[in-house]
Amino acid sequence: METDVLVIGGGISGCALAYFLAKEGVETILVEKSGLNSQASGANSGSIHGQIPHDVFVEKGEDWALGFGPTLGFIAESVTFWKVLEEMLGTDLEFRLTGGLLVASSDAEMRDVRQKIGIEKKFGIQVEVLDKKDLQKIAPYISESMVGGAFYPEEGKANPLLVTPAFAHEAERYGVKIIRQAEVESIVIEDR
């Protein structure tokens, strides 16, 4: 079989790549060794995050976070993409922005949270610092022993059981040939 682009893997990345290539007129074949969306892309919570993970920040430190920082701009742009994806694919993906809440249980944790937020803001992620009163207002179900936290309104989720199949469906509509239950054993590249 011949094609301009061979995409190996039928998870969200592979199906999205095949869709966008085909939409641009690139002849594309996607091969998946089992079923589409049958691995990590279909077996996750569908979370869409924008904050630096607190535990990683504490473990790796500020220098790591500053190095990771440029990635935050890409993450923020991805939320803009998610906001138009349902319309682009013509289906409900159960995408919702509900915001992401990080809770601090001690003054030391709150210092880490403030430091992390400072780095996030440098890279355009507008995370809000919450003192104890703000935290209780936004999340009254949280224990009153919590000292504060952070809230980022641009976090949410989409249904992972819907997203990949939607990309695959639209990719096929644009001419992508999807081959399921086929393992790639070799690739031969020839001059055209």
UniProtKB/TrEMBL annotation:
<keyword id="KW-0560">Oxidoreductase</keyword>
<feature type="domain" description="FAD dependent oxidoreductase">
    <location>
        <begin position="4"/>
        <end position="188"/>
    </location>
</feature>
<dbReference type="Pfam" id="PF01266">
    <property type="entry name" value="DAO"/>
</dbReference>
<protein>
    <recommendedName>
        <fullName>FAD dependent oxidoreductase domain-containing protein</fullName>
    </recommendedName>
</protein>
<dbReference type="GO" id="GO:0016491">
    <property type="term" value="F:oxidoreductase activity"/>
</dbReference>
<dbReference type="InterPro" id="IPR006076">
    <property type="entry name" value="FAD-dep_OxRdtase"/>
</dbReference>
<dbReference type="InterPro" id="IPR036188">
    <property type="entry name" value="FAD/NAD-bd_sf"/>
</dbReference>
<dbReference type="GO" id="GO:0005737">
    <property type="term" value="C:cytoplasm"/>
</dbReference>
